[in-house]
UniProtKB/TrEMBL annotation:
The entry's keywords: Oxidoreductase
Location of the FAD dependent oxidoreductase domain: 9-400
Molecular function as annotated in GO: oxidoreductase activity
UniProt cross-references to PANTHER family, sorted A to Z: GLYCINE OXIDASE (PTHR13847:SF289), SARCOSINE DEHYDROGENASE-RELATED (PTHR13847)
Protein name: Amino acid dehydrogenase
The UniProt record lists the keyword Flavoprotein: no
One Pfam family it belongs to: DAO
Top-level taxon in the UniProt lineage: Bacteria
A GO cellular component annotation in the UniProt record: cytoplasm
């Protein structure tokens, strides 16, 4: 049933995990939804990511050592964090703001916020799964989730982060492992992996399959999803909104949700959302190992994330701060291969498929932008950085609560888009 305060019809701009989750939760309140996207379902960063639902690793990017790494990375295209030299004022503004958040105090405070998120992101996935029924694409338990390291010293760095999670109110269930113990679980790991950690209570998804399933669920409940609809402007008419697309197209509704990922600022800025949303581009590809892994595997020092997708193995990495629409750079794929190949055995790295680049929307403080803009009819949902998948359904739940006047999850107070 639609609340008296709720809009009757909402346009959601963006058909990624954030946009479709928002549509799903709005439908839970009985609201008519139209979803539009410049490409189509999962045409942005929701398709080729690692698909991790990992509260233990949902951590702020602004860790103090990243700033030191980033300064060196500006000169090294092979670095996991690559910042090509640019005079782009928006990028320079983002980097200055990001640097201000890479202090130990601000990082620890951010860790406390992510610790508060905890498993509520998983709870939102469960709500969608329970309503969708047995035919929907599920989340998969990572029992356990594995991390691998080339040295014990590298492993100790992640253990220290886990200690901070516990100190700031979170919880992590983990166990230290040797390289031999890891290879007993995953024979495809090579001798360069000398230490590891297994983490319990984490999950993952097959992103393309999950996104298709979520889109089917939303449309089966009455929503329209229109691709190739490039929104060029949004207007608050005083009683509703007009969503204007290219080629003279437009839609009228009571409210709009901007869930456009790394393109968020272009539409949201005139509604008071001043935070820079910078594209932090990630790359991935798939291979078929001789022994197919059955667990997600992370190499923190190399910043390489690996996920089994049934008949193939996705390998992802890089954080590249550059123009959102720049083409795929083959050097980034090569850098991932060079970082990952010593850690495995039995993989033909030349036999790659599904090479992909996607733009993760990053904010300077590492927190998403979720909620009403200066206009009560224009809400935004973006800026999740690397954690759009993990926090997608929770974000949809928060946006739906804001639009319907119901009580939102408490964590939403940290994500005011007008901050």
């Amino acid at each position: 049933m639609v609340s008296a305060k709720a809009p009757g019809h909402v346009v959601v701009v963006g058909a990624g995990i954030i946009g479709l989750s928002t549509a799903w939760y709005l439908q839970e309140h009985g609201i008519k939804v139209t979803v539009v996207d410049r490409g189509g379902v999962a045409s942005g960063s929701s398709w080729g990511n690692a698909g991790w639902l990992t509260p233990a690793l949902t951590l702020p990017l602004s860790e103090p050592s990243v700033l030191r790494t980033g300064l060196k990375a500006m000169l090294d295209p092979a670095s996991p964090l690559y910042i090509p030299f640019s005079a782009d004022p928006s990028l320079l503004k983002f980097l200055a703001g990001f640097a201000r958040n890479c202090t130990p105090g601000k990082w620890r405070a951010a860790m406390g916020v992510f610790a508060e998120v905890g498993h509520t992101g998983l709870d939102a996935f469960d709500e969608i799964a329970q309503a969708a029924g047995p035919g929907a694409e599920p989340t998969h338990p990572a029992e356990p989730f594995l991390t691998g390291f080339a040295s014990v010293a590298d492993r100790d760095a992640l253990v220290r982060e886990f200690n901070v999670i516990r100190e700031t109110g979170g919880s992590v269930d983990y166990e230290l492992m040797s390289g031999e113990q890891l290879r007993a679980l995953e024979p495809t790991l090579g001798p360069a992996v000398v230490a590891g950690i297994k983490i319990r209570g984490q999950r993952y998804i097959n992103p393309p399959a999950f996104m298709d399933s979520l889109a089917e669920s939303v449309t089966s409940r009455g929503a329209t999803i229109t691709g190739a609809f490039n929104v060029v402007d949004v207007r608050d008419t005083g009683t509703g909104v007009e969503v204007i697309g290219s080629e003279g197209r437009s839609l009228q509704a009571d409210a709009v949700v901007l869930a456009t990922g790394a393109w968020l600022g272009a539409l949201a800025r005139k509604f008071g959302v001043k935070r820079v949303v910078q594209a932090g581009r990630g790359y991935s590809f798939t291979v078929v190992p001789e022994a197919m892994p059955s667990h997600p595997i992370y190499f923190p020092d190399q910043r390489v994330a690996c996920t089994p997708l049934g008949d193939r193995f996705r390998v992802a990495g890089m954080m590249e701060f550059r123009n959102v629409d720049a083409p795929l750079d083959p050097r980034r794929i090569k850098a991932i291969v060079e970082a990952a190949s010593p850690m495995f055995t039995g993989i033909n790295w030349e036999d790659r498929a599904e090479e992909w680049v996607g733009a993760r929307p990053c904010t300077t403080d590492g927190f998403p932008l979720v909620g009403a803009s200066r206009s009560p009819r224009v809400h935004v949902a973006g800026g999740h950085g690397m954690w759009g998948i993990a926090l997608g359904p929770l974000t949809g739940k928060m946006i739906a609560a804001g639009l319907t006047g119901t009580t939102p999850p408490a964590i939403m107070r940290h994500f005011n888009p007008l901050r």
